[in-house]
Amino acid sequence: MIGHYPIGMMKQIWPEAHYYSFFRHPTQRVISNIIHHSLHNSLYKSSTLEEIYQARKEHMTSAQARFMGYYPTKDNQMQARQVIKSLHFIGITELYEQSISWLVKHEGWNPEKSHTIKNVAAYSSDEVKHLLELIEQEQPIDKFVYDYALEEFHRRMSNIHEI
């Protein structure tokens, strides 16, 4: 099954399954989400990027952490870390080729088609720079989760190279 699903729900349905997850730097993930809405959601066709962010912020805040079992009312960041550690595979979007290579080599995965990472662009306008700073400030939990996933990814990669 491929998609965006909370892992707690998935583990209830398939407790013995192997779980694979890609993590993306929270600022880039939020920008990608904003751009997606600007291009594909008619409600936001004439909105600025910051207006879209403000309108969708509740859904975007701590999204990766929530998929890993984090609940803001419980402030259970360490629970999200344990879930990440339990994943069979951790991929990092910014290290996409290395992540896919691991799947090919260790899982025998044969990608049928090439996947292009979308909504990634260099931003230079003052508005976008301000928005990036705002997102960075407002995504501390996702940054915590991403940093841990990145650390775990590198740990696993170094363990493979030692074998």
Write the layout of secondary structure elements.
Elements: H1 7-13, E1 20-23, H2 26-40, H3 49-60, H4 63-67, H5 77-86, E2 89-92, H6 96-107, H7 126-138, H8 140-162
Parallel strand pairs: 1-2
- How can the largest sheet be summarized? 2 strands, parallel
Strand content: under 5%
Q: Quickly count the domains.
A: 1
**Secondary structure: helix percent:** 55-70%
Main-sheet strand order equals: 1-2
Mean pLDDT: 87
Low-pLDDT stretches are none
Total helical segments: 8
Class by alpha and beta content: mainly alpha
Description:
The protein has 163 residues and is mostly helical. It has one domain (7-162). The chain has helices spanning 7-13, 26-40, 49-60, 63-67, 77-86, 96-107, 126-138, 140-162, and strands at residues 20-23, 89-92. The chain has a two-stranded parallel ribbon with strand order 1-2. Helix 2 crosses helix 3. The longest helix is centred in the C-terminal third of the chain and has 23 residues, at 140-162. The two termini are 30 Å apart. The model has no long low-confidence stretch (mean pLDDT 87).
Short description:
This protein is mainly α and 163 residues long.
Give short descriptive properties of this protein:
163 residues, mainly alpha, two-stranded parallel ribbon, 8 helices, 5% strand, globular
